[in-house]
Fold this sequence. Notes:
The protein is α/β, with parallel strands linked by helices.
Amino acid sequence: xxxxxxxxxxxxxxxxxxxxxxxxxxxxxxxxxxxxxxxxxxxxxxxxxxxxxxxxxxxxxxxxxxxxxxxxxxxxxxxxxxxxxxxxxxxxxxxxxxxxxxxxxxxxxxxxxxxxxxxxxxxxxxxxxxxxxxxxxxxxxxxxxxxxxxxxxxxxxxxxxxxxxxxxxxxxxxxxxxxxxxxxxxxxxxxxxxxxxxxxxxxxxxxxxxxxxxxxxxxxxxxxxxxxxxxxxxxxxxxxxxxxxxxxxxxxxxxxxxxxxxxxxxxxxxxxxxxxxxxxxxxxxxxxxxxxxxxxxxxxxxxxxxxxxxxxxxxxxxxxxxxxxxxxxxxxxxxxxxxxxxxxxxxxxxxxxxxxxxxxxxxxxxxxxxxxxxxx
Length: 376
């Protein structure tokens, strides 16, 4: 019919799945490789991904050495999948392993800390590098969904919007006019990293942990690295940008926790953020972003309650900071407990209020409409 708008071409769906189970001086993450296999099956059986378009990276005998998750291999595979991506394509990026915070050497972080993921060799890939390789080259129209099942991961892609994607907020207005590209980097001002459950913390032993911020969804501070590319810092009331005004790719990042927090697994029940993500989407194929986040947060809160109960049963109120070491093992749900190593980041105080917090959270290129259907 004259005047009909032709449908958009069907794009290709590709996925890069990375599992880091063991890193020297860090906890072994017993579920990491299983979670990668389960994620692959989920994408193929429930989301229409073709197996040939899924790349798996693990340090395992079933995987070619060129796909062992070293920093060089990870960045190479990221570059390859991004180079293949057209304006109609989708990428699903998944990392399960250890997250960390390292001293920022380029003066672009308000808290002087970069977020990073660890390769199996122990080398870190910082947020700036991840954004440069995975986000910045994507063409307009392409879609990227990234899931990070690791500690300190909320702003690991340095995306512009993170405060405004909380569950309790609603958009106030729509941004009119052309959206602007920005080099604005946003970070949470906090350095509290405490105790451990059985988790994937930024430390030197095995445990998996969570933290909740003091405010409804965490107040993050933003700074701009280039005066020529200024946009207002992300607040609770960032405007929505309609699709016709979006000039960058659509990028959504779901993290297991905030930047200042640790991400816990339960090794007894084999529960991880990844497991919660997969199981919910298998039973609810078309949930909203808000429904998905609410479900995962509820499940994570269950792990937190069990961890606190185990701490009380063990009579422990151990306190951890940036580095940990094993002090004992207990026959409870949370198997390994640690305290601070002698380290410059260590706070020897007794405040354990931040031990009870882990908030899975979104960040995005544009403010996320949490009522929209999840796109993978």
